[in-house]
Amino acid sequence: MTVSHPRQTTVAVIGAGPAGLLLARLLHRSGLDCVVLESRDRDYVEQRQRAGIMEQGTVETLREAGAADRLDREGIPHDGIELRFDGRSHRVDFPSLTGGRRVWVYAQTEMVKDLVALRLADGEPLLFEAPVHAVEGIDADRCTVRYTHQGREHTLTCDYVVGCDGYHGVARQAAPRGGSRTFERVYPYSWLGVTAEAPPAYDELVYAHSDRGFALASMRSPSVSRLYLQVANGEDPADWPDERIWDELDARLGADGTWHLNRGPITAKSVLPMRSSVTEPMRHGRLFLAGDAAHIVPPTGAKGLNLAVSDVAVLARAFAHLRTTGSTEQLEAYSATCLRRVWRAEHFSYLMTTTLHTDPGQPGFDTRLQLSQLDRVATSPFAAADLAENYTGLPFA
Ligand code: APR
Ligand code: PHB
After folding, report:
1. Mean pLDDT of 54-78
2. Ligand nearest the Cα atom of residue 115
3. Of 101, 141, 200, 291, which is most buried, counting CB atoms within 10 Å of its CB?
4. Domain span at 37
């Protein structure tokens, strides 16, 4: 297939994950042109297994973008989560604690497929296997993005560049030396994540604190479960045969022995490290960072995808404001506007992570503090409302 290589555009978007694809869709709807450059192939991008919980604001943004048809048909609304700890179960009810807010189960990979299909149907530029290797001129009148495609070098001139290229992308590196700071925390555990052809045993997500480590029962559909176990950093998934995974999930999630998961063939198995990271500021001249390129959260709070969506919602609105008024005011406020929400999600993800994960060697004092915090959520409407408000997400700025 012959592919054209536009020489110039208004916004060059690096990366076709949820952040880049949704930004491109929102810009297109506002009449702004952009080119999306993605280093991997389409199959890889569409098959990558990621999280699956969407906040209310994420769903609303996708609807406004005209990208929620399948989500509205196949997404599963959830009105709460279950916390298991110390032999107890406690359900946190979202709508009653947040004035009607809820979340949806809809896999990030499905959202990516929907957005790729829309962009291609619109006939708008989206190049796969087109890695960007340089971003230049972010403090000049126009900038230049250099990339390779089908063995040839290409140059794209643009007014703005948005780095939606994840933690290891080039955009973060293009920020001026000394002009940016990264704040980080690495956790002493990872998650073993599995997908199984088995109906979820419970109709909501179950988060379990146990002496054996954290476990989470999630889902992708009425017939597919998504399950996670806390494991040591550097753990090899090959050391986890299916039987061992199911037994360990049952031991952690159904500690009282009366509750069992539905077992079925495991179709995917991988180990995910846990990290918190924020790069400030999220804008340098004509370069903007969005999604994982600017921040990473551990998956416990299910915030990664939602932060990526809220960043690009703010940015798309700022570009639309520039187009209709000629004012760069909202673009200048982008970093500060997003970072407020980012740090809230960082704190929530940190708190969920450190409250629910246990280490065999951890002092008994620390375990008692974790249990006290979980007991507080179970007994205080204020603590429960705080969790529910953070989980369902603050309204988008
Ligand atoms: N040139 C072009 N594309 C690149 C480059 C590059 N130099 N480097 C990385 N990319 C691409 C990656 O291949 C990837 O497809 O950028 C994309 C980044 O996408 P994601 O990692 O999905 O990041 P983002 O869109 O910010 O979505 C955040 O993903 O990691 C999860 O938990 C996270 O759910 C959150 C979501
Ligand atoms: C998921 O379904 O992948 C998932 C759900 C909730 C989380 C993390 C991951 O907190």
Report:
1. 97
2. 1
3. 291
4. 8-77+107-184+275-352
